[in-house]
Every structure is written in C-alpha cells, then in structure tokens.
Amino acid sequence: MEEGELKALLKELGLNKYEVNAYLTLIKQGPLTAGDLASLSKVPQPRIYDVVRSLMSKGFVAITSERPKKIVPLDPEKVFDEMEKGYLKKVELAKKELKAMYTPHESRREVIVVKSKTTLENYITEAIKNAQYHLSLAIPSQLLEKLAPFLKAKNKEVTIDLFLYGKKEVPKIADKIKVREVEDPTIVIQDKNLGIYAPPEAFKSKEQTIRGYALIIMDKNLLFMLDRYFYHALWPTGELVYKKKEKRIKLPKSYIHIRALVEDIRDHNLIGSEIEVHGKFVKTQEPVHLIGRIVDFFENEGKVISNITVETKDGKRYVVGGWNASLEDIEAEIMIVKD
C-alpha cells in the first residue's frame, strides 16, 4: 500500500491530517521530542502540543518521564485492537437502542408496530389533529396534560368520547368523559380511519422504549373490532363524570356512528328531521346517496345494534345502519341531520 493510501485510511479511522503526519513520523523515526516531531512531520509548531494531546487521548502515543520528554508511538497492533473493541461496543449499543425504537415498514401499511414512546405520542397527537367527525380515547391521566390543549381545540369541531384512567377531576374537553382507577390499554380511534392501541404499561416507564409494543391500525376490519371493544367492553366499565348538555342541538350536524345519532334522536326529539345519508347498500355494496326524513329509530338493550328508518320524498323507507351493517338496508358512512 502506498503511503498516500495509508494516510487516507487513517483519516477514515478518525485521525486528522496533522495527527496522521505526526503518528506516521513517530512510527518511522521512533520516540521524538515535541520540537523534532513538529519539524519532521511538518506540523506547525503552535499546533504540535494539541496534536500530541489528541493522539494520547485516542491511545496512539505516550509521553516518557525522562528529560527532555519524548513522544513514543504505541504498538499499532495493540492500538487498533483497542480501537476495534471500542468501536464494536459502540456499534452493539447503537444497534440495541435503535432496534428498540425501530418501526418496521409494512408495504400495505395496514398495521404498524411502534416501540418508541415519542413516536407513539406523535401518532396520538396527529390523530387528534386530523379528526373530522369523531374521536374515541382511553388514556392514562399522565398523558392527559400533554393532550388536553389539542382536545380542547378539537372539541369545537368534532365529537369526543374520553375514557380516563386515574382521576375524577377532568377538564371539560370532551362531549362525554368517563373515569376508572384500574388501567386498561391506551386506545385512540380517529373517525373510521385510524386506530391506536398500546398496552397499559406503555406510559408507566420513564424510558423512551415502550414495554411491549404499540399498534397503529389502518385495517378497516381491525379498526372496527377496536371500536367495538372500546364501546362495548371498556366504555360501560367507567363512571360518567361529565356529559355536555345542550338544550338545543346545533344543526346541521354530521355523524359517522349510528349510536351517536340514535342518542341525539332520543335526547333531542329529532324524529321528522331531514337527514342526508351517504353510504352503500348492504346486499349489493353499491354506493347510495339519499335525502329523507327520520321516521323511526331502534337500539337494543346492550346498544350493540342501532339503526334508523329514513323515508324519502317518494315514500320509500330504508333502514340505515352504521359501521359494518349487515341486518339493515344501508350501511352509512356519513349521516347529516339538517335544520
């Protein structure tokens, strides 16, 4: 190997130009005083002591105790063996930390696995910001402080159901708020577009790595199951501490969940109100858009099944269900109750 190539290699290993010249000079000449080293290596005299100190800190040279003091090159094999060990330790540490934070890429992006707490919090914040109609959240009280400003701002635009693990005194930043001492998973459902699921212990540690992992869900079937779990398994177990009271509902109002519409029909006597429905026919899966009047509604005891009956101007009646409707005529995507 030519000397120019060797110098380039040493630079790649972390030495600068002056350090390379000084070290190679010592390797060839043996121990030298600082003055002789500066002269032979062509390192500027004012820089030689900084260069020597840097080479010492990196393990390339030592200084004798004799008078005058001399700079001694250390055995290159030992020097680079130590460098290799230190480098491998750093590589292994970096691998360990990055693997703990790594979010694997899924080509279909239906489910993303997250192990970084910061990444998870960013997904939750963005879900709140991007909601257009409805937000369902089950979160620990320690996370509420970070999310409260976003929820307060968004509550003017969308319906929010908040389930809080921990305390009973909660700011009025949602349409309904339930609390419970015992924690269950952290859940966020944004409209029908995105779901977030994290284990109960996700926010208990101060570490950035989540214990276990969190899921970012965009698969429609999994998202529907998460919604069912939230409202039929988790929501009934909480204590209702706040419900927004409206003497008169503000219309027009958009709904993506049939249960929310049925509740407003009951609470605000919306029978006879005009409604616009966008969705698809259950049997044919063909898209449908109709305008009519609400003439009836149904909700079973467990609130698992909810639907409304809409009559159009030509006298036709359609039973309209919600997400994944199978017993009704129409599965609604958006329902807009008008004045």
Q: Describe it for me?
A:
- There is one protein chain.
- The chain is of the alpha+beta class.
- It folds into three domains: 3-75, Arc Repressor Mutant, subunit A; 111-243, Endonuclease Chain A (Endonuclease, Chain A, 2-Layer Sandwich); 253-337, SH3 type barrels, CATH 2.30.30.690.
- The protein has nine helices and 16 strands.
- The strands form three sheets. It has an eight-stranded mixed sheet, with helices on both faces.
- A hairpin with a 6-residue loop joins strand 13 and strand 14.
- Helix 2 packs across helix 3 and helix 2 packs across helix 4.
- It is elongated, with a radius of gyration of 34 Å.
- The model has no long low-confidence stretch (mean pLDDT 91).
Itemize the secondary structure elements and their pairings.
Layout: H1 3-12, H2 17-29, H3 34-41, H4 48-57, E1 61-63, E2 71-73, H5 76-101, E3 111-116, H6 117-130, E4 134-140, H7 141-154, E5 159-165, E6 176-180, E7 186-190, E8 194-198, E9 209-217, H8 220-234, E10 239-243, E11 253-255, H9 258-268, E12 274-281, E13 287-299, E14 306-312, E15 317-321, E16 330-337
Parallel strand pairs: 4-5, 5-6, 15-16
Antiparallel strand pairs: 1-2, 3-9, 4-7, 6-10, 7-8, 8-9, 11-16, 12-13, 12-16, 13-14, 14-15
CATH evolutionary superfamily of the largest domain: Endonuclease Chain A
Alpha-carbon Rg, integer: 34 Å
Task: Note the total helix count.
Answer: 9
**Distance from first to last alpha carbon:** 86 Å
Shape descriptor: elongated
State the order of secondary-structure elements, H for helix, E for strand: HHHHEEHEHEHEEEEEHEEHEEEEE
Could you say what the CATH architecture of the largest domain is?
A: 2-Layer Sandwich
Q: How many distinct folded domains?
A: 3
Q: From the helix content, strand content and strand pairing, which structural class follows?
A: alpha+beta
